[in-house]
Amino acid sequence: MIETRALSVHLTGKPVLHDVSLSLPRGKLTALVGPNGAGKSTLLTALGRLIAPASGEILLDCVPLNTIPAPELALRLSILRQEGAVGPRLTVRDLVSFGRYPHSHGRLGVTDRAEVERAIDRLDLAAFSDRYLDTLSGGQKQRAQIAMVLAQQTDVILLDEPLNNLDLAHARRVMRIARQEAEAGRTVVVVLHDLTVAAAYADHLVALKAGRVAASGRPDQVVTEPVLSDLFDTEVTVAEVGGRRVVLTL
């Protein structure tokens, strides 16, 4: 489980997150939603210990995040970032293998290779596994980076806009995998812009606005017309289709 207590984060000297207190439970998929610039990616990056809080604290299983040694943290927490810079002349398999580094330290064993192949298969990348990254489409590269995160096999998985560049079929595949990881007992936190997808797959939603928590709770508590209309400062309609909530703007 991850907790934040009165967490504030500054970027280039400017406050981006203000007094954020949350509990992100194990075995659940939590979606971070909200308008552009709300602080979703900043929060996820702070949870991944890639930026330091200005104040407050983050706890991982009741232990302050900033006290956990980096090698141990890499075995417990993995993160997909939006700006994941990778070498263009790496193959898909090379990239996914990086996810095993915390376990293998660069010397892949039988278990490591099996986890790499499993992640490649789960993301439907077997046909591209020996292709160089600079020969792939944006969606294929995105799936390769998600596969790298999965290969790391951590108890906490943080995904920043994992559906970027994905077609409908692969977006559904990725969200189903995220659900499987949560159901396996992991803490999964995902930044999403598609509120219909968030309502369909998440157990818990956190809505951010201007760096503060505007709402949090189950999808039926957050994905409502009053909450979303206020969150996005625009009229929002929530309809039921096939027993699922569908979010529309007029």
C-alpha termini separation:
38 Å
The helicity comes to 25-40%
Strand content: 25-35%
Strand order of the largest sheet: 6-7-8-3-9-10
What does the largest sheet look like? 6 strands, mixed
Enumerate the spans where pLDDT stays under 50 for 5 or more consecutive residues: none
Question: What is the mean pLDDT?
Answer: 96
Computed Rg: 18 Å
SS-based structural class? alpha/beta
Described by the principal axes of the CA atoms, the overall outline is: globular
The total strand number stands at 12
Element order: H for helix, E for strand: EEEHEEHEHHHHEHEHEEHHEE
Helical segment tally? 10
Describe this structure in words.
The structure is a single chain. The protein has 250 residues and is of the alpha/beta class. The chain is 35% helix and 29% strand. The protein contains 10 helices and 12 strands. It has helices spanning 40-47, 70-76, 92-98, 101-104, 110-122, 138-151, 168-183, 195-201, 219-222, 225-232, and strands at residues 2-11, 14-24, 29-33, 55-60, 63-64, 77-80, 156-160, 187-191, 204-209, 212-217, 236-241, 244-249. α3 (92-98) packs across α5, α3 (92-98) packs parallel to α6 (138-151) and α5 (110-122) packs antiparallel against α6. It is globular. The model has no long low-confidence stretch (mean pLDDT 96). It is a peripheral membrane protein. This is ABC transporter ATP-binding protein. It is found in: Cell membrane. Its main location: membrane.
